[in-house]
Specification:
It comes from Acidovorax benzenivorans. Keywords: Membrane, Transmembrane, Transmembrane helix. This is YcxB-like protein. The structure is a single chain. The longest helix has 27 residues. Helices cover about 50% and strands about 25% of the residues. About 15% of the residues are buried. Strands 1-2-3-4 form a 4-stranded antiparallel sheet, with no helix packed on it. The protein is an alpha+beta fold.
């Protein structure tokens, strides 16, 4: 199976936002800091005030994180990533080719595959993935077929 697409900044940004949101250490840190703020706000007052403080603090931390990502990820140094890609899957390998490099991964080297609205991420390491936007697939059945194939190969 062969998939061709152009990876855009919004794809990269969406992947990073979801990836960070799914990281347990990030969640634990944000929840803990928001909880400390909530406890300090609710001492001697209504519990609803503490809950509201928690929601505001948690949301504000994620908003700041996303703004930080926006600034950090927007760089001309990403031209080797934000380019045209050709992904090919075969019985032996998962391959990603651009004008800058060609990467071949044997199936045991694929860590996991994540399906999210807007993209599929094939992780080649804990913090590295091949990001395939949903628009790269002709239709939903092709996307599902690709996911099923990759997951079957990585489970074997």
């Amino acid at each position: 199976m062969r998939i061709q697409y152009s990876l855009r900044f919004r794809d990269y940004f969406a992947f990073n936002a979801v990836h960070q949101f799914l990281l347990i250490p990030n969640q634990l840190f944000f929840v803990a800091v928001a909880a400390l703020i909530a406890v300090s706000e609710s001492i001697g007052s209504d519990v609803r005030r503490g809950v509201l403080a928690w929601v505001i603090a948690y949301s504000a931390m994620w908003a700041l994180q996303l703004m930080y990502n926006l600034v950090v990820l927007h760089s001309k140094k990403n031209r080797a990533l934000l380019t045209d890609h050709v992904v090919e899957v075969s019985d032996d390998t998962f391959s990603d080719a651009t004008a800058f490099c060609v990467s071949h991964y044997k199936w045991p080297g694929i860590v996991s595959t994540v399906s999210c609205p807007g993209f599929v991420a094939v992780y080649t390491a804990a913090h590295a993935a091949c990001i395939i936007p949903s628009r790269a697939f002709a239709d939903v059945p092709q996307r599902e077929k690709f996911l099923a194939y990759v997951r079957a190969k990585t489970a074997a």
